[in-house]
């Protein structure tokens, strides 16, 4: 059987140029988040299937890479259903493992716990631009903080990181799941139909308000309810004014403090932010995960044409493990998409020191090589990137390759 050179569909090999950018982005991210008080932690890439299938991951639960039972537990001839064959799977995000982690270690962790977690996740999805079946996620979460300080800090930290890697004029959209529910209730939709309504509403940016109306009607919803619902969106400003409008219009369906809390988040972020971005209220923002309970947010960049990060509050999720309600909020960046944009813009990792290459004649003496290596080690100890290579016959091509790798200085060492 001939071996295959290409990676499995939806996964990729990473070449040195991209790897350098990935390492740089991760380094900047970790240093930025450290300044905001987040501490690194880690969970296994394999998770219990019961946890992954807890009906909290939305559509992602249909995309799990499941793992067969091992050893004597795997009895293929006796299997009657899938659960007889599998008992765990590769994680599809970092939030479900984090909640299990916190439930298991809460007695050993501070409160609030400000977690930074990076790692690969897997989804059996259809690959497309900026989306793979294996990809890196980078999450920050605040567990144990019930006030809007958590949301404010998460937005400021994430935007500060993007600013550090020179992203500008991006947009963070913000909404609240309780506002979504209040708008649906005000319009006459039954609570059991909210998820269907929100799935259709989430398509607003693709199919427009008329398309949303058509799909809602196709689902059998009352035309009067649809008209009331969509009329609300016609009068909402993408600012705090829009929140105030809904606070007044949805009186009796929306608790006033929900609107006040969201307005305060926007106000505090606008006053404290240092990166160049816009923060807008978007009542059509849904976020696919069903575990969100309060404010939700998403980062968009015009040049990408889609989301490059998102998150929100999920106060009920840890309680699924512990039986006790625990406030929690998180923000995840689309690491792969950010790296893709940097590559497309021919981004170069900034350097404090230059890169120097020594091309050594193959006939160099033992003593001369000893002297060179001593010199090189001193230069490396000072932070310089130094490469020592044997000089090739096609010296011109060799130098061109080194220059392409970022070596700004090339020194030839000839034999005496």
Summarize the structure.
This protein is α/β, with parallel strands linked by helices and 416 residues long. Helices cover 39% and strands 20% of the residues.
Describe the protein's topology.
Blueprint (H helix, E strand, L loop, with lengths): L15 H20 L3 E2 L5 E3 H4 L13 E3 L17 E5 L4 H11 L7 E10 L11 E10 L5 H16 L5 E7 H10 L7 H8 L2 H15 L4 H12 L5 H10 L6 H17 L4 E5 L13 E7 L4 E8 L5 H4 L5 E6 L1 H10 L10 E6 L5 H16 L3 E6 L4 H10 L4 E5 L3
Parallel strand pairs: 1-5, 7-8, 12-13, 12-14
Antiparallel strand pairs: 2-4, 3-4, 5-6, 6-11, 7-9, 9-10, 10-11
Helix pairs in contact: 1-4, 4-10, 7-8, 9-10
Overview of this protein structure:
By secondary structure, this protein is α/β, with parallel strands linked by helices. Helices cover 39% and strands 20% of the residues. It is built from 14 helices and 14 strands. It has helices at 16-35, 49-52, 95-105, 149-164, 177-186, 194-201, 204-218, 223-234, 240-249, 256-272, 319-322, 335-344, 366-381, 395-404, and strands spanning 39-40, 46-48, 66-68, 86-90, 113-122, 134-143, 170-176, 277-281, 295-301, 306-313, 328-333, 355-360, 385-390, 409-413. The strands form 3 sheets. The chain has an 8-stranded mixed sheet, with helices on both faces. It is globular. The relative contact order is 0.12.
